[in-house]
UniProtKB/TrEMBL annotation:
UniProt-recorded name of the protein: Cytochrome P450
Organism placement in taxonomy: Eukaryota, Fungi, Dikarya, Ascomycota, Pezizomycotina
Pfam families (alphabetical): p450
Gene3D superfamilies: Cytochrome P450
CC cofactor: heme
Secretion signal, residue range per the UniProt entry: none
Residues annotated for heme binding in this entry: C497
The organism's place on the tree of life at top rank: Eukaryota
GO MF terms, alphabetically ordered: heme binding; iron ion binding; monooxygenase activity; oxidoreductase activity, acting on paired donors, with incorporation or reduction of molecular oxygen
Keywords on record: Heme, Iron, Metal-binding
Amino acid sequence: MLVAVLTSLLAVPGLFFIWSALSLQANKKKAETTGLPLLVRWVTPINPFWLLCGSSIVLKCRAWGIGTKNFHRFYTFGWEANERHIVHEELGPAFMLVSPGGNWLCVSDASVFAEVIHRRTDFRRNMEQFELLNVYGKNLATTDDEEWQKHRKITAITFTERNNELVWKQSISQARGMIEYWLKHQHVNTTADDTKIFTLNVLAAAIFNKSYSYHGAAEAKAEEKDDNDSHLYRDSLGRILGHVIPILICGEQGLKAWWTPKTWKEVSNSIATFRSYVTGLINEERANIERGEQNNQHLVAAVVRACEREKHEASGGKRTATLTEQEIISNMFVYAFAGNDTTAIVLNHLLVNLAAHPDSQEWVAEEIRHYLPDNDRTTWAYTTFPKLKRCQAVIMEALRLAHPLGQLVKGTGAFPQTIQIGSRAVTLPPNTVIQLSLAAMHTHPTYWGQDPLQWNPSRFITTPPTDAIVNAPIEAEILASDTAPHFLPWATGQRVCPGRKFSQVELVAALAVLLRDHVVSPQPNAGESLEAARKRVFATGLEIEHEGSILHEMRHSKSIALTWRRRGE
Ligand code: HEM
């Protein structure tokens, strides 16, 4: 009996190993037909088990000196974010990553990016990788073609300048709360968590009309104990965002299974809470429309109104497309998902990089004080936003060095596709996933010169010759575009990020509040000089983690303690 049990226990991994070896060989043969360099991986990059704990296994092996160099470099989830341009310098602008579950074309070349993005019927979004955003069903991020157009048309029109102004004001007020909190809670090693609270509060106001005063990570816990259910919605969203991978693996109902940990069961409840909250807002807005009142400015209200308009036009015989209640909920979730942690991660990187580079802080503060001389922040007008070019340059530099998505993922689908790579036309086999690596392209010396891994935001600013300057020199500075063939932090083409300006306004407003009157520096470890601490935090900031989350975050953010002080103190 015991022998039978042991044999069957060994048989499962044995069979899995044989299946992996055979699949790997088959995929390798297909990849060889491209003539591109190959990088072989024994574990499929999107293997669910590996998503949950693969990186920890690799890091442990790395620490204990177990395994090959190849295993240490290429088996973590999100390896490409840490490799940046290095692997492409070794293997070229495009190579095939071969695994048992399929082949990946990894690209750092701007012209291949352009071809893939613009041939959008040949190279489609890889929906498998976006599956986890279907928590509430299909939405903008998980559909294609006509269905996608319907989602995009209705939801994108709600991103108006009026909404951006709301984002500006709300971000100023939240950043104010955040800096007060940090001044009281020195030294701050919770910047990564605190910035997520900041962006969650801004989103809550812009999308759902919920206004919260800022409480940092430590205070937020105490606040939960107050049992005031006004925080229920925001906390539900926060919990869902932090557990998208368990949700993908188990689904809403599966999270409640007897064997799941308590936190997963709570996530299931949060999914229901968020659904009922948005349903409530939809019903409220429909009732408002019936009464002829249309004053709500939040995005849910705007989407409901857009849907009602479409229905009205449809009744007049015009061909239109509207969204169901389920689809509105799903889109609001995806906006919150796509807009929250992305922006928070960038803000965290930004602040760490600025702490490491005091000269950049002075450079940015000079601009902020020039355009916002009034101490009273309530007078800061939204029209100042485009003038704050140095602020935008530091955001672009932070995105260049550490992008929260790391790559744009497309696929050939069921057909082979021929694509120009350098001087060769390469035919990619069917079902090839294409990984356009932002991390590699944004740091490749071909595009960024000899200092691609250095922090240098002024690379995005040019100053005209002095004889061409009429007003203050700072006003003549020219900001590079946020979209160039070799720089695509918000993507480009049809699926460009609809929240681009939202995030820019939010981050610039935060910088204005944080840096106009304050200075941030890293807290040195015992015996460490300030200069050494600056170098350490910059290097730490470049190390990226991706396990258990679909975004690329700073791996050791808790090891970085920041000190804030008022200017002149
Ligand atoms: C600095 C912050 C942000 C960055 C770097 C960023 C970047 C991107 C990128 C690169 C894409 C394209 C993804 C792909 O094609 O695979 C994207 C899509 C998207 N972003 Fe953003 N984003 C940011 C903030 C926001 C915000 C604040 C919102 C909403 C409030 C938002 C909503 C979306 C949505 C809904 C999509 C999917 C669009 C579609 O598929 O049609 N993003 N974002």
